[in-house]
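Record type: monomer structure entry
Structure origin: computed from sequence
Chain ID: A
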Amino acid sequence: MEEKLARYFELKEAQRALEAELDELRKELIRVFPGPVVCEIGGYRLKVAVQERRDYRDEALYAKLPDPGLWRHVSKADAGKVTAMVKMNLLSEDMLEGAYSVKQVPVLQVSRL
């Protein structure tokens, strides 16, 4: 069992190192190609797109909920949970107006040709 624990620990360390390197490479690629772009370099295709993400404010979202009991499903302004509640028709986009800010987030895709 100790070997399994040691291997798990090693893999988690390697995962952290890989994620840190991926993050640095992503930042560098976004710095060089900041806007929406599709290009081919060598044997790879790079696609940078812009995605909108909503940042909900707890107080503003709570004030917009038609039933305060819904807050227990959200408990904090989690964009995924709010989106799910909109899809289930518990909330509408109109109700949420003013409860969030939208930020532009670059999305990076690299694929082999």
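Annotation 1: The mean pLDDT is 88.
Annotation 2: The radius of gyration is 20 Å.
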